[in-house]
Model the fold of this input.
Amino acid sequence: MTYVKKWTSVEAYLKDMPPAGGRQISGVVIHHTWSPDHATWRGDRSAAGIMRYWLQRSKELGYRNPLGAHYIVAPDGAVYQCFPHAQVLNANSNGHANRTTISLEIVGNLDVGNDTLKNPQKHGVLGLTGVLLCRYGLTEAHVSFHRDFTDTKSCPGTGIKKDVFVAYARTALAWARSLMGR
Ligand SMILES: [Zn+2]
Done:
């Protein structure tokens, strides 16, 4: 099984959004892949590889809800959907967060000294965050980082400051609202 769908940009995603239904959503959680990073990312092949890895590990671990994230945002800003919004994932080291959030995975190792989040990927990540917040009637206060739920991970990377990201998400939400007419 490979990823569900790919859009080349968040603008393309906005014109052709997947179903929102099936689950009560109270937040968006941000992750990074760590590996592949920007240097080892190979586009569609890597996205399919990540998906295969998640499903294989989930099977090995006997997880009822798969490991993974709903979305992957590539260095070129492409958006991959890996699971429908209705799917609960083992994403956040926290059962409540798993049940009630959508997870967004940034391709890269965003720990300080490695990759950095810059355009067009930055636009894709923040744009998708804004669109998801808008769709579920949420605000930038409903953005979490994986590391908010665990002490054992830096995810989405020590190079991503929460207050800076949240401020950008606020702007992204206003952008999404203007385009979605909400
Ligand atoms: Zn994570």
User: Anything to note?
Assistant: Residues 31, 146, 153, 155 surround zinc ion (CB under 6 Å).
